[in-house]
Write a structure and sequence with these properties.
GO terms for molecular function: nicotinamidase activity. Belongs to the isochorismatase family. The chain contains 7 helices and 7 strands; from the N terminus they run αββααββαβαβααβ. The chain is of the alpha/beta class. It has a single domain, classed as Rossmann fold. β5, α5 and β6 form a beta-alpha-beta unit. The structure holds zinc ion (ZN). The site of zinc ion has 5 residues, from loops.
């Protein structure tokens, strides 16, 4: 029943995806959204998966592979880490990813990036990494990262497709459209590098305060809504050497 509903909606909202080749003669940046224990590692906290999850495991593997590729090429990488103060809850969600705990640390497959010189780590205490990049003096770590590195395209991966990934993509595209992010042109969301969590309706009904959140459907909707804003949705990505004229 559930999978039939998902198929029906996917037919009504078909999502065309592309195989994207990122040309190596311009700077491409990789943005990792919240690939931290509190959202990805089994049993790590209130918002962590309760059991191994194929979509989340796939997202971690693809993100780690891309992070290795970008680090080998010394390309800029920005990692957002959800990180909250204990006295500032983020409704409608239960307490999660408290600063300094294991929950707000990168998953084991990505911990190595903290020591890479091309990687910028940004802790944020809100869904949207763009707003979470605003400093007290009004500057923006993400905007500066794009400008200082002359980034032409960003590739976005992480969790959750329909929440933190989507919010960041929406804000970034609006900022780009208003001319705040030159020379950034393309915002690419890599579908196999994204994941969301799974709370089926029957579980949500029995959990106080929980919203229904079927994983496949919400992942699809997140990608679809990103595409509605003008993001490129990729099901394959590679770095390509441009041919000499
Ligand atoms: Zn949060």
């Amino acid at each position: 029943m559930v999978s039939q509903t998902v198929d029906l909606l996917k037919n009504e909202l078909p999502l065309e995806q592309e195989s994207v080749g990122l040309p190596e003669d311009v700077v491409n940046g990789l943005v990792l959204v919240d690939i931290i224990n509190g959202f990805c590692s089994v049993g790590a906290g209130n918002l962590a998966p309760r059991e191994p999850n194929r979509q989340i495991t796939g997202m971690i593997n693809e993100s780690a592979r891309l992070a290795r590729l970008f680090c080998d090429k010394k390309l800029p990488v920005l990692a957002f880490l959800d990180s909250h103060q204990p006295n500032k809850p983020e409704e409608p969600y239960p307490p999660h990813c408290i600063a300094g705990t294991d929950e707000s640390k990168l998953v084991p497959a990505l911990q190595w990036i903290e020591n890479e010189p091309n990687v910028t780590i940004r802790r944020k205490d809100c869904f949207d990494g763009f707003l979470g990049s605003v400093e007290d003096d009004g500057s923006n770590v993400f905007v500066d990262w794009v400008k200082n590195n002359h980034i032409k395209a960003i590739l976005v991966v992480g969790i959750c497709t329909d929440i933190c990934v989507l919010d960041f993509v929406c804000s970034t595209i609006s900022a780009r459209n208003r001319g705040f992010l030159a020379p950034l042109e393309d915002v690419i969301v890599y579908s196999r590098g994204c994941a969301t969590f799974d709370v089926p309706l029957h579980v949500a009904r029995n959990t106080k305060g929980a919203l229904s959140h079927p994983q496949e459907l919400m992942h699809h909707m997140g990608l679809y809504m990103a595409k509605e804003r003008g993001a490129i949705i990729a099901n394959e990505v590679s770095l390509v050497t441009p041919k000499k004229p």
